[in-house]
Amino acid sequence: MKTMLPRFGRGLMTCALALATATPLMAEDLTMWVRESAADPGTLMVNLWNSTHDNKITLTAIPDNQLVTKLATSSQTGDAPDLVSFDLIYMPDFMKAGLLTDLTEQLAADGNYATHIQAYKDIATYEGKTFGVGFTPDVSVLAWNKDLFRQAGLDPEKPPQTIAEIHEMATKIRAIGPDTYGFYFSGSCPGCNIFVTSPLMVAGGAKILPKDANDTALDGEAIKVVLETYKAMWEEGLIPESAEVDTGANFVSAFVGGNIGIAGTGGFLISLMEREHPDFDYGLTLLPGLEPGQVSGFVGGDVVAIPANGKNEAAAREFVTWVLSDEAQLEGLAKNSILTTRTDLADNEYAQNPKVQVTAQALAAGYVPWVFHFADMVNSDSSPWITMLQTAIFDGDVDGAIETARAEMMAIVQR
């Protein structure tokens, strides 16, 4: 899902021609909300826009667990922002609720949309209409600390290729010393785990979430294998005790601290490490399954959309068009080691970074579930998803945890 390159003259020319033939717009001050966890890449994009446009955007970061309710409430009261950037997984619920502006005709006429990554097209389409575009993309991958691999007698250039190998390598890394751990995950963070734990299951052939009452939930051998592997690593002390209560605050910092051997993460790690930890020797690979060659990733990141009945819709539509332009894709995303959402720009000078290429491969192999009630099934603090993980890993009841979570998910989807 990531691509990068600095030749955006064609995109600027296209934009200039389009503006020249369109009705001139008065400069407008626009408001935009972004979920807090995606504020950094969102800020990069908005700052780039503001540096080249008269219509300035004021960006406000909203806590992740408040954005869904806040957008729904503001749409009813008429206080919605002109633009909103949010986790792509909420598109089905927002579209069905009528909270977003229909962009179908605009995007159909936009040549840049033709090469937009299909996963973003799919998640933003409902009943034949399109309501948003990919804004700041991401995908989950597996990170490993090469220095710790060396100390443990492991080949620093050979990451784990199966779930079992994660366990085996984590065991050797833990043996380095009392303050070194083989593996890490945020045990109380439902979103973190759908991002980095569910792909281990999906890579092994499992189905996680039901789309409707006729679908299945938590189906496949890999569900149990992954949970049992996590449980074993927890019981063997390969994971820090602090992981059990981590709500996501240490999702990144635990690995960056240097005493964790292996951890799931996202492509966002590349830009962070380049800026703040340029000497950290680490690698990225695709999240593996049960057998060598089985890989997957959770296609994540944010979409940008226009809340329904916005006050500055015409100016907001300009921004949506710009998001797909060469300038935004290359100078805003690619230049900052963030994947582009246009496949025709995948082979660019910024994308030659091997780690970026890994994220592009993960994007191609990744999945994104198109489901309603995602917050209830996954992202809430008491969801069936996170309760299953905690019950199986920390309490030890793997079979019971899966059975209970499956029943609860199916009850939610039948609403």
UniProtKB/TrEMBL annotation:
Signal peptide from the UniProt entry: 1-27
Domain of life of the source: Bacteria
InterPro entries: SBP
Cross-referenced Pfam families: SBP_bac_1 (PF01547)
Any one Gene Ontology molecular-function term assigned to this protein's record: maltose binding
GO CC term, one of those recorded: ATP-binding cassette (ABC) transporter complex, substrate-binding subunit-containing
Keyword terms, alphabetized: Signal, Transport
Gene Ontology biological-process annotations: maltodextrin transmembrane transport; maltose transport
Family under the similarity heading: Belongs to the bacterial solute-binding protein 1 family.
This protein's name: ABC transporter substrate-binding protein
Organism: Neogemmobacter tilapiae
Species classification: Bacteria, Pseudomonadati, Pseudomonadota, Alphaproteobacteria, Rhodobacterales
